[in-house]
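Contributing new records

If you add data, match the layout below exactly. Sequence lines come first and carry their own label; structure lines follow with theirs. Keep one chain per record. Anything else will be rejected by the validation script.
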Amino acid sequence: MNGRQYQMMLPDWRKIAWVLALALLASLAGCKSGSRVPGASGLDASQPIALRAGGQSAGSSALVPVNEAQAHRAIENYRINKSRKKGPYQIKGVDLDGDGVGEAVVLFGGEDWCTKAGCSLAVLKSNERGYEPVFRTVRVKPPVIIGRDGNQGWRDLIVMTGSGAAPRRVLLRFTGSGYPRNAMQEPVIPTGAPVDGEIAIAGAPGSANTLQ
């Protein structure tokens, strides 16, 4: 066998290296897209987009703007009417009933609004005067997730609840007259089950009131 024949039998290492490089890049890209949602409580809340359990975008977002000044004023009136101390809270505008107008979803913090099992979550509906509280659920912990599904025209809420090191995730489904009063009495979503929704409130209220 002469030298030319031997060279023709050798593999083209440049082509092999190119194929291996492409395969490595494809593998890295797949890992990155699959790691956006390590679990339902790890949904990426940095972008106000609809996220499914697998990190896929799904339809239009229910997150909408609210009038910040009117929302804060309504919350202050609500606090006074309930004879509660001032405390931190977080607000998120969400179109829960699909009418194109955002409700203010408010998660309160502070000793007057919370127990070890969670804090008060209120829904304020817009009217000609601003906002008024219409529903309240106690013993809620973040994240507060707006579900894709709903009942009687209102979106499901998916929240955490319970004391101890392992709070559980539960489903708050509209009953026709409002959302359930006590999150701890609602159906538990099994650990590891896919959650189809988008995060409205990612963490507990801090020292300052915020409009997320």
